[in-house]
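Is this the right way to post structure tokens for a design question? Let me know if I should format differently. Anyway, here goes:
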């Protein structure tokens, strides 16, 4: 999930430019990574967003709410996750 922040930023730019299909790869990767970490709610949102992006001719306006939810969840995860990591070795 370390590379997720830049991927989400690029996905936001793609979505703003109407390149909805460009969201498929990063959303798919986030879905898999979050599922492996046991973040089922995050994976569910990513799965739903992926399904929306896979629809024929997906529209940015239809995808935006799900993308915003995914970004908000990631922001929360990124703020909390470091607390669960062991301290660096001395």
């Amino acid at each position: 999930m370390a590379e997720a922040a830049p991927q989400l930023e690029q996905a936001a730019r793609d979505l703003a430019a109407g390149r909805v299909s460009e969201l498929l790869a990063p959303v798919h990767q986030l879905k898999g990574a979050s599922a492996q970490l046991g973040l089922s709610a995050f994976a569910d949102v990513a799965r739903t967003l992926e399904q929306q992006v896979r629809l024929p001719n997906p529209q940015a306006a239809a995808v935006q709410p799900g993308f915003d939810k995914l970004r908000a969840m990631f922001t929360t995860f990124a703020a909390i996750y470091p607390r669960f990591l062991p301290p660096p070795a001395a």
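Format looks fine. Someone answered above. Worth noting: Residues 60-80 form the longest helix (21 residues). Residues 82 and 90 are 17 Å apart (CA to CA).
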